[in-house]
Amino acid sequence: MISLARHRLTPAETGPALRALCEWTPADAPGGGVHPGDVGWHLRFDDAVVLLWTDDVVPVAAGFLDSGVLRVTTAPGADLGVLAADAQELLEPGNDCSDGLPVPGWELNLEEPWLVMSWTPRPVSSRAEPVGEADAADRVLVQRSAFARSTFTVERWRTMKQSPAGALAVEALVRTPAGQPAAAATGWFAGAGRCGLLEPVGTHPDHRGHGYGRDAVLGACAALAHRGASAVSVVTPSTNDAAVALYQSSGFTVVRENRDWVRPRRA
Predict the structure, then answer these.
(1) 147 or 2: which carries more pLDDT confidence?
(2) What's the half-sphere exposure (Cβ side, CA atoms, 13 Å) at 9?
(3) How far apart are CA 78 and CA 105, in angstroms?
């Protein structure tokens, strides 16, 4: 008999969820809707909430709500039906997508697949350098320039780095010959022999087309491989041609498509 409990974890309490997600991360490409790195990036917000489901005291699923999408990864062999039944309480109107957890009565989104791409460790050459406190403002500048609606700040970068996931992060920053910040990538370690994740990656609009984004990607990948990652994955919309081309040029290959479960539209 399953004794399911759902816990709302504050950022300081996320250690058990991160450890479970690391344990569930395979060697080749992440499964489910959440990698430990997704939680790590989520923890840039000091009011972030992470969900952990347990059977008695054993973790069976972890995730969070992300702009109306319930993102979940489950333990191998977890009872998806029981988890979905509990998750229905979270899936009120407005939270209309589920990534990683099938919801009875919902439909797969056939219009917007996500590509899961994977990189196998190999020797690389990159102009990227690690990101430290002195580089934080430039790291943030790249993020805000690359993503028009970004709310990233130096304070949020520090919050992320000081969170329980901070030790999992590796960051790569590429500068122009004149020293201007051009591209950046954040990678997330899930343990030796497990697949790492890139989240996020961005290139300043003023410096695109010069290979800086590729160098940032390869710099983060190399740092993860150095720590013992068996592979590095990235997830991107299939319609984002520029991102797909960047990752392919960096040696990533498509391993599968992910599709969200969505609430049926009423006729």
Answers:
(1) 147
(2) 24
(3) 20
User: Do the domains 116-258 and 4-108 match in fold?
Assistant: yes
**109 near 255, Cβ under 8 Å?**
no
Cα gap 185→128, rounded to integer Å: 9
Q: Which residue from 217, 223, 224, 212 is spatially nearest to 248, judged by alpha carbons? A: 217
Q: What is the pTM for the complete model shown?
A: 0.96
Pairing status of strand 169-175 against strand 261-262: unpaired
Q: 4-108, what's its fold?
A: Aminopeptidase (3.40.630)
Domain boundaries, the chain: 4-108, 116-258
86, two tokens: 């509990």
pLDDT per residue over 148-162, tens digit each? 999 999 999 999 999
219-252 residue pLDDT tens: 999 999 999 999 999 999 999 999 999 999 999 9
Distance CA 63, CA 7 (A): 11
pLDDT higher than threshold 70 for residue 267: no
- What is the DSSP secondary structure assignment for residue 207, as one 8-state letter? G
Q: What is the pLDDT of residues 86-120, one digit of tens each?
A: 999 999 999 999 999 999 999 999 888 999 999 99
Question: Which one is the CATH code of 116-258: 3.30.70.3420, 3.40.630.30, 2.60.210.10, 3.10.180.10?
Answer: 3.40.630.30
Q: Strands across the sheet with 114-119, in order?
A: 129-130, 169-175, 181-188, 195-203, 231-237, 114-119, 253-258
CA 69/CA 63 separation, integer angstroms: 10
